[in-house]
Write a structure and sequence with these properties.
There is one protein chain. The chain has a single domain, classed as Peroxisomal Thiolase, Chain A, domain 1, CATH 3.40.47. 35% of the residues lie in helices and 18% in strands. It contains 13 helices and 11 strands. Strand 5 and strand 6 form a beta hairpin. Helix 4 packs across helix 13. The longest helix has 16 residues. The model has no long low-confidence stretch (mean pLDDT 97).
Length: 381
């Protein structure tokens, strides 16, 4: 397998884009990535998306996007729920690494705000166990509330101890023009926020939105050394779909397995990671991800927020462009946004939230409540 690098990135602002269709948002990101890469086309297109068939009445999305973009290339849609973007990148990576393709475009796209919130909630629930979770009326907010309540009980944390994850994300999003939420929040704001499903409140949860992000992949040996952003590690792991089927619901086994395999491929350890774009759909997931990936001991994830370790000046900066919490979470696109933001960090393009000397970054994209987890590690070489 040959090494693969990213030479082009593109993204749209995450927002309620009433005036644009899913195809228009998708093509906007694709054209930005092509322009950034200095290319006119590619050998294949991999589209990460979860809900186009449900919310947009548009299955077979990839050929639609390819034709609308003027790309006469093989195009497929990849669905791994909220992990669709990461799974699409892994598919494109394997195609180029194997030699099957000499270049690939990877796109993540989701159009979510044209439907009633109840319809969106029901669509999101299709990533859970239909018979034993969704059928019982448990939404994803409810599932994360159950996890958070149990975590607080087991380890003795208060709800306010999770506030730094949200505060950090909002502070970083202030400097990201593509982020949905451009306002800072305080501990007082967090504690007074409206409750959704106890103990998860509004500021524990990420907002949905319409958005698309894209990457352009090529063989790394075609590029000049010293400027290459190499995909040094890529791994996917799977856990049970339903949380109640797991031997330990408070440990993200798939995050542990995929991160360990990505570390092995990249030849690094957790302490080598300069920046980590984790999947902070809810603040509890930030804590669980940091623990599973080796940055904190079991039950100690919130401490990294409380002591400032997760800020741009800390030992393990996370959500440096706002994360899902403040950049926004257009679910099928999120995994690609994460990697676009890592590329920006390794290029030194992040302004006020730039991590000095960043050379190794990690992105982890979760599907469902941790049932499918894809981890990528990038290196500047």
């Amino acid at each position: 397998m040959r090494p693969v690098a990213i030479i082009g990135i593109g993204q749209t602002k995450i927002d309620e884009q009433w005036e644009k269709s899913i195809r228009q948002i998708a093509v906007e990101a694709l054209h930005a990535a092509l322009q950034n890469a200095g290319r006119e086309s590619a050998d294949g297109l991999f589209v990460g998306n979860m809900m186009s068939g449900i919310l947009n009445s548009q299955n077979n999305l990839a050929p639609l996007v390819a034709s609308w973009a003027g790309l006469k290339v093989p195009a497929v849609k990849v669905d791994a729920a909220c992990g669709s973007g990461g799974a699409a990148l892994r598919s494109g990576l394997m195609a180029v690494a194997s030699g099957e393709l000499d270049s690939a475009l990877v796109l993540g796209v989701e159009k979510m705000t044209d439907r009633h919130p109840h319809e969106v909630t029901a669509a999101l629930a299709t990533a859970a166990d239909a018979d034993y979770e969704a059928e019982m009326g448990v939404s994803f907010v409810g599932l994360n509330a159950l996890l958070m309540r149990r975590y607080m009980h087991e380890y003795g944390w208060k709800h306010a101890d999770f506030a730094p994850f949200a505060i950090n994300a909002h502070a970083n999003a202030m400097h990201n023009p593509f982020a949905r939420l451009h306002h800072k929040i305080t501990l007082e704001d967090f504690e007074k926020s409206a409750m959704i499903a106890t103990p998860v409140n509004l500021l524990d949860a990420s907002p949905i939105g319409d958005g698309a992000a894209a990457l352009y992949l090529v063989p790394a040996d075609s590029l000049r050394a010293g400027t290459r952003i190499l995909i040094a590690g890529s791994a996917c792991a799977t856990d049970t779909l339903a949380i109640h089927d797991r031997s330990d619901p408070l440990f993200l086994t798939a995050a542990y397995k995929s991160s360990r395999e990505a570390y092995r491929q990249a030849g690094v350890e957790p302490h080598d990671i300069d920046v980590f774009e984790l999947h902070d759909a809810f603040t509890i997931m930030s804590a669980l991800s940091l623990e599973a990936c080796g940055f904190a001991e079991r039950g100690q994830g919130p401490r990294l927020g409380l002591d400032g370790s997760i800020t741009p000046a800390g030992s393990i900066p996370v959500m440096t462009r706002g994360g899902l919490k403040a950049r926004g979470h257009p679910v099928g696109a999120t995994g690609v946004y994460q990697v676009v933001e890592l590329v920006q960090q390794l290029r030194g393009e992040c302004g006020e939230t730039q991590i000095s000397g960043a050379r190794i970054g990690m992105a982890q994209n979760l599907g469902g409540s941790g049932s499918t987890i894809v981890t990528h590690i990038l290196k500047l070489i």
